UniProtKB/TrEMBL annotation:
Allosterically activated by HslU binding. It is an enzyme of class 3 (hydrolase). Signal peptide: none annotated. NCBIfam families: ATP_dep_HslV (TIGR03692), PRK05456.1 (NF003964). Na(+) binds at residues 159, 162, 165. InterPro entries: ATP-dep_Prtase_HsIV_su, Ntn_hydrolases_N, Proteasome_sua/b, Proteasome_suB-type. Belongs to the peptidase T1B family. HslV subfamily. Its main location: cytoplasm. GO terms for molecular function: metal ion binding; threonine-type endopeptidase activity. It comes from Chloroherpeton thalassium (strain ATCC 35110 / GB-78). This is ATP-dependent protease subunit HslV. It is found in: Cytoplasm. Its EC number is 3.4.25.2. It catalyses: ATP-dependent cleavage of peptide bonds with broad specificity.
């Protein structure tokens, strides 16, 4: 997935998820302040997306339905979305990924049926994800920064390296 960076971090019972604001079409920047993250389930879950915007919005809507259907149980909702996404004739063509955090869990959900819970509590998707992930791991290991600060600094570092990521950052936090 190109054209964005989304990263989420869990630390000390808090969760933060952020993204840059750049929207690109090919090698052209169309917008600098796109919103790619949102809170769900009464603010207990934050979801971010990378990929085609219309596809991602469709998936966000489906994920919210799953959260309601399964009483906000993040694991179950994620697995059910991934199953539907992979098996449904229409949904399996959608090109996007989701990064999801709650205070207890961080997950990546993909259209190939993957629901991944990284061991270090860091989720990252999009073109600048590996830059942001590397920065977040270093900050998590070598500082006492809180989750929100780690997300912010990681996105700034990715924005300095990745041409598809800018430093117009939006962050949501669950405390």
């Amino acid at each position: 997935m190109r054209a964005t960076t989304v990263i989420g971090v869990l630390r000390n019972g808090k969760a933060a998820l952020g993204s840059d604001g750049q929207m690109t079409y090919g090698n052209t920047i169309l917008k600098h302040s796109t919103t790619k993250i949102r809170k769900m389930h009464d603010g207990k879950i934050i979801v971010g997306f990378a990929g085609a915007t219309a596809d991602a919005l469709t998936l966000l809507e489906r994920f919210e339905e799953k959260l309601q259907a399964y009483g906000g149980r993040l694991d179950r909702s994620a697995v059910e979305l991934a199953k539907e996404w992979r098996m449904d004739k229409y949904l399996r063509r959608l090109e996007a990924m989701l990064a999801v955090v709650s205070r207890e869990k961080a997950l990546i959900i993909s259209g190939t049926g993957d629901v991944i819970e990284p061991e270090d509590g860091i989720v990252a998707i999009g073109s600048g994800s590996m830059y942001a992930l590397s920065a977040a791991r270093a900050l998590l290991k070598h500082t006492n920064c809180d989750a929100k600060t780690i997300v912010e600094e990681s996105l700034n570092i990715a924005g300095e390296i990745c041409i598809y990521t800018n430093t117009n950052i939006q962050i949501q936090e669950i405390v």
